[in-house]
Amino acid sequence: MKNNFDTLSQAVSALQDAGYTEDFNLNSDCIECKPLDMKLFVKDFEIDEMYRFEGQTNPSDSSILYAISSDTFELKGLLVDAYGVYSEALTPEMIQKLKYKP
Is 3 a member of any domain? Predict the structure, then answer.
């Protein structure tokens, strides 16, 4: 589905329409889907697509959007995070996983 989106909201909307409906949060060693009370560790998910967006007025307001799927748990969802800045230390395995290469 790899597209060029102008805004984060356009990308989120298109990916949700494509079935990426769950909302993931980043933890140091996993991603978490709070509504399902589920944690996915590095071995449990794949990054299907990734998009970067820079802030219109401030480049430090950059964000990154990951389209994530898990065959193990049969779900697809989105993870939005600040680009290059993580609120907590990540494990080396998680850092490597987030270095998406198409």
Answer: no
pLDDT surpassing 90 at residue 57: no
Higher confidence at residue 1 or residue 81?
81
Cβ 22 vs Cβ 10: under 8 Å: no
Q: Is 1 a member of any domain?
A: no
Return the pLDDT at 61. Answer: 67
Does any domain span residue 102? no
Q: Are 70 and 78 in contact (CB under 8 A)?
A: no
The two structure tokens encoding residue 21 = 């409906």
| Helices and strands in the chain: count of H runs, count of E runs | 2, 6
Q: Which domain holds residue 50?
A: 8-97
Whether the per-residue pLDDT at 27 is higher than 70: the answer is yes
What is the number of structural domains in the chain? 1
